[in-house]
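Technical annex, item 7. During the second reporting period the consortium partners agreed on a shared format for inverse folding records so that results from different sites could be compared directly. Each record opens with the tokenized structure and is followed by the designed sequence. A conforming record, contributed by the partner at site C, is shown below for reference.
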């Protein structure tokens, strides 16, 4: 790390702390040559491999903007979307890989979005999973109904 004051290529760490979300480390450094102090932030890089083969850094903002379209007109706040993006990033980072396919990020969005808003989930899934027919929607709705029944009545048998 070059000193931002004198460009000396060496510095020593005075203090290290994790950030609020635990995904970054803030280090306070001092230059041995000019005694200037400065801070650095270190994060583990997470790269996304897009369908075109292009590789770019993971961005929570891109997750939010992709999901925001599915949530238009729904009672979902910006804070809800930020929490969803954080959950997606945590899920993706748990894989331990430094590079992940964009497709895997889309899959990681589905569960938290279903928990957040079922209509938005159906909208996102219909595009992401390329629903071709009404049967695809019916199957997804049927799966949601089944999951809701098991969550709402775990000790009772559900009858139609």
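Designed sequence (site C submission):
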């Amino acid at each position: 790390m070059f000193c931002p004051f004198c460009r000396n290529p060496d510095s020593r760490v005075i203090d290290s702390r994790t950030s609020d979300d635990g995904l970054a480390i803030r280090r306070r450094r001092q230059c041995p040559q000019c005694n200037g102090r400065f801070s650095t932030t270190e994060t583990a890089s997470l790269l996304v491999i897009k369908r075109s083969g292009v590789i770019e850094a993971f961005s929570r903002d891109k997750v939010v903007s992709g999901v925001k379209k599915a949530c238009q007109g729904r009672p979902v706040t910006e804070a809800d979307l930020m929490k969803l993006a954080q959950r997606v990033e945590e899920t993706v980072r748990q894989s331990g890989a430094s590079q992940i396919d964009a497709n895997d990020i889309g899959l990681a969005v589905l569960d938290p979005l279903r928990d957040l808003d079922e209509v938005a989930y159906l909208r996102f899934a219909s595009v992401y999973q390329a629903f071709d027919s009404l049967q695809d929607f019916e199957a997804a709705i049927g799966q949601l109904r089944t999951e809701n029944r098991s969550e709402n009545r775990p000790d009772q048998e559900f009858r139609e």
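The beta strands are 12-18, 24-30, 37-43, 47-49, 55-57, 99-101. The first strand starts at residue 12 and ends at 18. All partners now use this format for quarterly exchanges.
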